[in-house]
Each structure stands twice: as C-alpha cells, then as structure tokens.
Write a structure and sequence with these properties.
4-stranded antiparallel beta sheet; 2 helices; 4 strands; 19% strand
C-alpha cells in the first residue's frame, strides 16, 4: 500500500500533466460503462491528495457531453492493494 507521501507526489505529477485537459474514460471489462460514459469528455480542474486518497475533480466539457449532466464530478482512484471505501 502506498504511503501518503507517494500519493501527494502523484497528485503533483497528475496536476502538472493533466489539469485543463479533456479526457475519455472507458470500462475495459464493461463493469463501469455507464460511469465511464458520464465522465468521458469532462475537463480535469485539479488534483487533490487527502491522506492516502487521490481525487481528480472535473467540470463538464463545453458544450455539455450529456444533456442534464451535473456541472462537476470527482474521480477517485483506488490503487492496487488499496480498496475503495
């Protein structure tokens, strides 16, 4: 399990590389297809590390990808060996 300092370093790297970029999400095994569709096309607005948690808040792309989609959502990444809670 990664320690908090590793998560904070990843947050800095992800912020530098990804903030402001629009992304496409998918679900290779098909278990999260609907969630991937909701996140696809959103722009990353920041990266936040809280303890051992890494959050990627997003805002809707312009124009909205999905009509009626909420204005922003966050993607929480669970690294291997770190079950999501």
């Amino acid at each position: 399990m990664p320690e908090g300092n590793i998560i904070h370093r990843l947050a800095r790297v992800h912020h530098r590389w990804l903030v402001g970029r629009q992304f496409t999400a998918d679900s290779p095994q098909g278990r999260f297809t609907q969630d991937a569709r909701r996140l696809s096309g959103r722009a990353l607005v920041g990266v936040e590390a809280h303890g051992k948690h890494l959050f990627h808040p997003t805002r809707a792309a312009l124009p909205p990808v999905l009509p009626g989609a909420p204005p922003g959502q966050a993607l929480s990444i669970s690294l291997p060996g770190c079950p999501a809670r």
